[in-house]
Amino acid sequence: MRLIAILILMFTGGYLTAQSLISGTVLTTKEAPLPGANIFIEGSFDGATSDPDGHFSFYTVKTGSATLVISFVGFETVKLALELPGNQSGLVILLKEVFSRQDGVTISAGAFEASDEKKGTIFKPLDIAMTAGATADIAGALNTLPGTQTVGESGRLFVRGGGGRETQAYIDGAQVRNFYNTTPANVPARSRFSPFMFKGTLFSTGGYSAEFGQALSSVLSLNTENFPEESQTDLSLMSVGLGLAHTISGESMAITGEVNYSNLSPYMSIVPQEIEWNTAPESFDGAVSFRKKTENGTLLKVYGRAEHQRVGINRLDDITLDASEDMDIQNQFYYLNTSIMGTSGEKLTWYAGSSFGYNNDVFDFGARSLNEETGNLHLKHTWAYDWSEKLAVRFGGEYFLNNTDFTFRMGALSTSQFVEEHLGGAFIENDIYLTKKISARVGLRLDYSSFLDELALGPRFSMAYKTGQSSQVSLAYGTFFQTPQEQFLWQSPNLDFEKADHYILSYQHSQKGRTFRAEAYHKQYDRLIRFDPMTSFFHTGLESTGTGYANGLDIFWRDQKTIKNADYWISYSFLDTRRLSMDFLEEAVPSFASAHNFSLVTKYFVVPIKTQAGFTFSYTSPRPYHDPNEESFMNGRTPAFMDLSFNAAYLYRPHVIFYFSATNLLGRENIFGYRHALQPDGEGHYPMEAVGQPALRFLFLGIFITLSKDKTKNQLDQL
Amino acid sequence: MKTKLLLIATTVALLMVIMYDAKANDALEEAMLNGLKQMNEAQSAQDLKNAVNVFERIAQAAPDHWEPYYFAGLANIKMANYTEDMEAKDNHWDDALKQISKGLERAPMESELIALQGYCYMLKVSVDPATRGQSMSPKAIGAFQKALAINSANPRATLMLGQMELGMAQFFGTGPEKGCGLIKKSLDLFDSFEKPTPYAPDWGKEWATNVAQSCP
């Protein structure tokens, strides 16, 4: 029986109550009282919250060894060992603020980011799609941002005095060559990829991360949706074609298939055109995307696309600008992008990606033709390791294989050229959060080209200093390399990487729906391609001795707050640039450069009629062109470019949207430049022709219908 | 004798364990009810912060229960009512979402938690429908539908789904029948709702009654 007594005593012992009083004050390390902290005995319900003076007190019935926990979000948790019962009064506990990367300053120099997920981004993915005048083209929308120069006859992104090829596009980390569709000379191209595909966009106008190479001016990094949440069917009926997409989404796998057909022939038969189209642009494309996620968070994305396009025009020939000639273009484009992302442990994240692209352009002029085939393979592997909240390192390597095959045919004669380039790249970069106010990014990149037989080392550096609650000053520096155009490579064995150095100083103030940014930069070009000006296709005197510079100031202001339901942004870019490159005889402003670019983008949601409407006004100052009839080089100036565009999306039902857009409401006859004949006419005069818009206006009307179990879904986030 | 003793000892030990467990549950119940009282009688953000801390203490001491995180989340949602600043409101809702996901780690298929998650998204949409409506409304609706798929008798999920439907109907100028149908259904569900524990979520009837008054 004694045993039972002991047992009973043993078990009831724990129930005997002996209260202890615990009290004290919680202060920050700066000795300011910290209200709201949670003070408790670990593993028990006993505890208290500190009052506005930081004081707390509570009773506990716990006995034996215990741990007193003092915790508050954003501060290091303190644990104290206690022997209970036993009163503890007058405790003074100092909590130290923890550094969290989220509190650190994100370097803004050179970068425009659009994301729904991340905080503090200036743009949402929808902004890109719903910009009037962009006609749902990624490049068109980004052209309303500072640092870009409108080049109306090209449609591509021209950044800070750089040419169109100096911007490199990436999808889910892997490169996309032939990002734009193929068009006849002086007919603006569009990006092949719909902006609706992307949920995150990073557009860098300079000073970008060491992760990216092979771009002298700018990087456009696009990320596709991680995982579609619902199964649905999307139907598009447009004035220019039809589209059908279907998504099946399961727990861990999702697949989307889409087909689109567009043909501008009916549209062009109604709306007057300035260009003589033999074949109106016609395209057929299909895409499949596949997503798989595993339980440990690894995400696999596969995206494949096939596209066929045809277009034909009649125009004045290049040589004399006298006779008309037909130009027929057929394009085939295939692209496969695969990426896989995952984590190993808590601190290491990794990414492996690949892309394969095949592009074939056939330019047929009747008597002569050019067939250009390119194959591009890109393999990339990166790792990111978090040493601490204050230090993260990223490193990786990549490999590119670029093949280009040109075949020229003139009557019965034909000649072929083949270029194969192996490129290797490796980078390492550290993100250092020195304090809450200062962060820095230090990186180094190595590029090797088999064709150029050159190894290039490019340092990258940027840092930001937080000057106030919502403002920062940042600066960036970097050296960037890019292989010259394929069309020059086979013509000379002695070329080098083209090179650009960027120096950027930036100020940003961003607060509650209003953002102001001013950025000044200097860009130094070196080792640009030069060749003998008397040659037009087969060049002589090719060498990497060209130079150039670009200085400028970019201003950006966005306000989503002042006017209810309205949003607008203003961009202004000033550019001073000159180059000695290509066929230039002397240093001059290139024809794609304009000193002043201005955009005003407005969006307004008209609640009573359920319509989002927007206007975009763009201005580009006169651009230079060369008139061989004049003594001096590149002396001509085009008129200024101006455009006022409108778009509107009307939500008829939650799953039905009507969309309308129109460009050039003012009906201005914009002139982008002048072509000149390569040969003078009988009187020794070089004939000239103005390069204008393919049509005075572009009008678009579409109906977008989404069919899903949930009727509230629509394609607005895809428009 | 020896075996008998052992038997008695084991029985007593077992009894003690059961008693202890019961006592622990009583303590949990007491602590939860105390936290609920603090939350419901709160007059300020500070009072609500106290309640959040109470629930967080319970959450760490009772690692098998999702309810402490549910109410820590709900108290955070209520804290957002004490500020007009949109960013501060957002921070409270984000805190609530964090609490809810901690709860979901303990009970991934808990209808009430998922409904509360939807409620957070719904509130986030309400302050900025123009930019958030398209991305977050489907998330809210998806959460309510998932909550109802798990427990079709969840009155709060039914009510909030009805509220979303009413909002959409008002915007698109369609009839309120669907939304009102759900609101009325939620009233029936509130009436027949039986709390599985004394500290289970049971709020929302007043809200449903108010909304139902505007229904035809």
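Chain B touches chain A at residues 5, 8-9, 12-13, 16, 20, 23, 27-28, 31, 46, 49-50, 53-54, 56-58, 60-61, 86-87, 95, 130-131, 134-135, 137-139, 141-142, 145, 168, 171-172, 174 (CB under 8 Å).
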